[in-house]
Amino acid sequence: MNHADINARFREIRDKVESEERLTLDDGIFLYDEAVPLQAVGELANLVRERKNGNVGYYNINTHLNPTNVCVYRCRFCAFRSDLRDPKGYAMSDDQVLDRGREARENGCTEMHIVGGLHHQRPYEWYRHIVEILKENYPQIHLKAWTAVEINWFEFQTKKSIRWVLEDMRDAGLGSMPGGGAEIFHPEVRDQLCEHKANTHAWLDIHRTAHEVGIRTNCTMLYGHVEKAYHRIDHLLRLRELQDQTGGFQVFIPLAFHPENTKLSDLKKPSALMDLRTMAISRLMLDNVQHIKAYWIMLGIETAQTALAYGADDNDGTVRHELIYHDAGATTPQCLSVDSIKQLSIEAGRDPIERNTIYEEVVRDESDFTKWSVGKSLEPVSAV
Ligand code: V47
Fold first, then answer.
1. Facing residues of 254 across strands?
2. Which residue, by CA, sits nearest to atom 9 of ligand 1?
């Protein structure tokens, strides 16, 4: 395409975005063309962000818990997993889990993000018990627990339906589900990354069922490895299609691949320009998902902050005990202070607002920061 053709095609897409018309597979692939200036794609995404979320930068105060890294699967992109007998392998005791809960409460966390390996010697009841004891002891903390890959494993372990597993976990204390395990849906790529684990159909079916039983979930895409633009847009469209049917996704998180210590360590990490372009294109394609998250742990602080002008409205949380990205070479800190995460928004010209996991405002007690209550819902319409 020559310059004039590129400009004309871009104008067509800009007109669509301005009139809130949906973008197509071809539109998305075109926006990934390096001949299309990143700045222009970013400006369009910023328009949509402003329209959907106003001048706000959301964050939360949270911690991670990975109860085990022992995993039956050997996903090629994963640096976190371990074999049972590897010295690196671990599985936490109840006391270790509860210590994390105590630490979370002492630091004013509203959320625990709980995911881990699929440990072949730990039954379903062990995973359920983790959720149950945390909820019993720290009822105010929202448990965002288990990806669709784990739910799929629990289905296999219990021989029960997805619905049964989700309702049983919810009875134990699960509040919502994180978006991990989606990777890239297209089989040309998924089969190269993780051919054995929950397939695309299973991932989508589990999220659909979660939405049907009233559990909100997040969604992700792992990019910057062996996939092409076509696979990324195909992935976004599959998420958009499910969201049209259920409305249960709260936020989309594009996840940049970190190659260190993985079976794909010969690949280069995606550039900051690729990160920003993916953020912007995600905002443009996912017209029915309310929030786009720039996860600072994975992007680095500077890119996460810049992403607030490229379609993102959320920086995730202060985070403690993150392992998945740090095992894969992330050089970001282990935790940000509340002031630092607010500063990301302030410097980007956004008003920082603390949210809980399901996008309600968190109101902090003025005399004791670790005490808080739930304020108004920050969502324009009820998602589920
Ligand atoms: O599913 C694993 C990805 C995901 C690597 O829902 C890797 O709010 C890059 O899903 N390089 C887990 N990515 C993290 C995740 C997440 C993170 C933050 C917030 C939320 C949310 C969800 O991380 C995995 C996989 O896609 N991942 N290894 C790696 N080496």
1. 221
2. 257
Locate tokens 């049209």: which residue? 244
68, 121 contact by CB (below 8 A): no
Span 297-304, average pLDDT: 94
Give the residue-averaged pLDDT of 303-317: 97
Rounded mean pLDDT, 215-219: 98
Q: Is residue 227 within 6 Å of ligand 1 at its C-beta? A: no
Residue nearest to atom 28 of ligand 1 (CA): 78
In one-letter notation, the amino acid at residue 257 is F
**Fold annotation for 48-377:** TIM Barrel (3.20.20)
Q: Which atom of ligand 1 is nearest to the CA of 115?
A: 12
Query: Could you tell me if the CB of 58 is within 6 A of ligand 1?
Result: no
> Per-residue confidence at 382, pLDDT binned at 50, 70, 90?
very low
pLDDT of 71 over the 70 cut: yes
The protein residue whose alpha carbon is closest to atom 5 in ligand 1 is 78
**CB 183 less than 6 A from any atom of ligand 1:** yes
Q: What is the chain's mean pLDDT, rounded?
A: 95
Residue nearest to atom 16 of ligand 1 (CA): 180
Q: Name the residue at shortest CA distance from atom 23 of ligand 1.
A: 180
Query: Smallest Cα–Cα separation from 58: which of 232, 296, 219?
Result: 296
Q: Is 111 in the pocket of ligand 1 (CB under 6 A)?
A: no
DSSP H helices, the chain, are 3-18, 25-31, 38-53, 94-106, 124-137, 148-158, 162-172, 187-194, 200-212, 229-246, 272-285, 296-299, 301-306, 324-327, 338-347
Quick: pLDDT tens for 136-176: 999 999 999 999 999 999 999 999 999 999 999 999 999 99
Instruction: Indicate the pTM of the whole model.
Output: 0.97
Four-point Cα dihedral 179, 106, 172, 373, nearest 10: -80
CA distances from 90 to 62, 68, 149, 328 (A): 22, 6, 19, 17
